[in-house]
Amino acid sequence: MNEQLNKLFEQAMAEVITSQQLHARWLNTLSMMENTGARKISRNEHPVFINLTILKHAAEEARHAYFLKKQIGKLGINLCPDYSWEFLLAPLSSYLYLHRLDLAVCRMLKDQWHFTQEQVKQGAYLLVTYAIEVKAEVLYGIYQKQLERFGSKINVKSIIMEEDGHLEEMTAMLEQFHEQWKVLAEVMCSIEEQLFHKWIEDVVMELPQPIAST
């Protein structure tokens, strides 16, 4: 993330963490998005040719969703029981985030790189996951620093460690996937950055205190 977007996200997290209700909705939103990622991986798995890394990735995304959901209990009782819109922040953007990212990369690989259907499917998984892991390191890193700053009971260090491992795995798989993987990854991260910026702005719009957008 650029410096201005970093600052916007830091300010948003400072306001979220100091409100029990907002913090619960934020954790629930992250949980929903992690769960969406796990479901997308499982839905797109090949029924036969699936390796240990992909199985591990799907399992860990699901675990992250569970872990984040369980953390809500540290904030209070009966907060955000499910993923209904009233229990999320920026629900529409949050629900569509991965879908929009997936759609954008599929179009790019098909229209600009002329990949086959199978290549598009594999490339989309690898590139979307890579871009998400790159952003997750920053997002959870900033979030963790703000949690520590305000002495919160919530802790996401275990997720940060696993996301770092995912990034290494995706990099290795992309190297095998295509010789110009760095070019593909750079374009993918640029697309993701735009969608992330829009998502954070939508989250900020739901906060009671105005925060200057970038």
**What is the terminal separation in angstroms?**
12 Å
Series of secondary-structure elements, N-terminal to C-terminal: HHHHHHH
Helix content: over 70%
Task: Tell me the radius of gyration.
Answer: 17 Å
Taken as a percent bin, the fraction of beta residues is under 5%
Count of individual helical segments: 7
The number of domains is: 1
| Overall number of strands | 0
Structure description:
The protein is an all-alpha fold and 214 residues long. It has one domain (3-205). It has seven helices and no strands. Helix 5 packs across helix 7 (181-205). The longest helix has 33 residues, at 117-149. The N and C termini lie close together (12 Å). The model has no long low-confidence stretch (mean pLDDT 92).
